[in-house]
Amino acid sequence: MPQLSPRITQLNEGGSDGWEVFYRARAMVAAGTDVTELTIGEHDIRTAPAILDAMHEAAHGGHTGYAMVPGIPALRAALAQRLTERTGVPTTAENILVTPGGQAGLFSAHMAVLDPGDAALYVDPYYATYPGTIRAASGRAVPVQTRARDAFLPDPAAVSEAAAESGAKSLLINTPNNPTGTIYPQATLEALAEVCRDRDLWLISDEVYDTQLWEGAHLSPRTLPGMAERTMVIGSMSKSHAMTGSRIGWIVAPAPAIERLIDLATATTYGVPGYIQDAALFALTRGPDLEERIAAPFRRRRALALEVIARQDTVTAIPSQGAMYLMLDIRATGLSGRDFADRLLDAHHIAVMPGESFGRSAAGHVRVALTVDDARLDAALGTLCAFAESLTHE
């Protein structure tokens, strides 16, 4: 066949997308093995029936044709009002583009700010799709390393140095963070904002976990002085409303940028189905009580998990302040995160994500998703810790 473009063949450097343990666990499940899956951020309680009813009614009511590419006006207005109320930054529908999930928002944002070959910074550890997303937009993905002893918070000086060395056009951050659970404090965000202003960077802020807060508070960098005009915020209904499969998210950006992003959406996705947008609008009208109910199991399971970890001293937890994950340091076993995850899956049919799936900085760690019922999570973590302890005696 004719040759494929380097853009598509080089999305995953080294030929790996970091999901091998997940794929292997799913194959075991398909073959009939009972696996405790603690891999991906998928709610174990599915989309609320009332939201599905709204989707059903909208579809049967006829909203199954082409919807407005930027998003239906009522949803864009509701998102603008939500953001204005939560951040204090005046936001209108012209600042909103509805996208097929947060991932499409990440891709579109990088397409908007990068020319082919431009460098784009992102913080390591990172959500597994980040470097591939940048490469898909024909950018050069440049990681900025962090350290476990700093709770994987980025060093603004290191970001500034990386921007200067690479000539970067953008910086991608994620708070609350996947995979680490870290929430960037205000001082860190202010320092990163200063770097963006000094280096003339776009800041792409992935805030899809902003309703899953266990300690402290979430601050959107768009609220900081001089940042509204150089920040693109990625949001999603996936985590806040357990609507992962509905694929509905958004970008918040300066109105001129949104105008150009609408052009991109017209040439690519051509919008989001209207009945899904109607369901998202209905979900937003349920208010913060629904969001808290969806977040509550992860708050409870985080506390449970930390209790299990505290009962031993081989595995340690990175402080988790938000999101539905816990990053565990298993370096005392002498294994890499990948080897530990493989051996745990083979020996005990428990699937966790290797830290190396999220970058070099998380080597020797594993990420646990708090996405099974409390009793099963308690048992799995107890087994994980006992397994880690046994490895120290090999």
Automatic annotation (TrEMBL):
A molecular function (GO) term: pyridoxal phosphate binding
Domain of life: Bacteria
Listed SUPFAM superfamilies: PLP-dependent transferases (SSF53383)
Cofactor(s) named in the record: pyridoxal 5'-phosphate
UniProt xrefs under Pfam families: Aminotran_1_2
CDD domains, A to Z: AAT_like
Name this polypeptide is given: Aminotransferase
Organism of provenance: Pseudoponticoccus marisrubri
UniProt lineage: Bacteria, Pseudomonadati, Pseudomonadota, Alphaproteobacteria, Rhodobacterales
